[in-house]
Specification:
mainly alpha, about 70 residues
């Protein structure tokens, strides 16, 4: 989809500082959109509070590496 947008020059410049392999504004905007979508899809861990039931004899210490 082709569109014209006005971007904040300071934000674009700062974003380029954090992006080693991105060289164009198009790549920058596409990466930002992908990361935005990915972040929105991640379920907030706090929403799971009280919804996970563990077995009574569950021992988390047994699962540790180097017991």
């Amino acid at each position: 989809m082709r569109t014209n947008i006005v971007l904040n020059d300071a934000l674009v410049a700062e974003a380029f500082k954090y992006s080693a392999n991105i060289h164009t504004k198009k790549e920058l905007v596409e990466t930002a959109l992908q990361e935005y979508i990915q972040n929105r899809k991640v379920k907030d861990i706090r929403d799971l509070k009280g919804k996970i039931a563990f077995y009574e004899n569950y021992n988390y210490k047994e699962m540790r590496i180097g017991k």
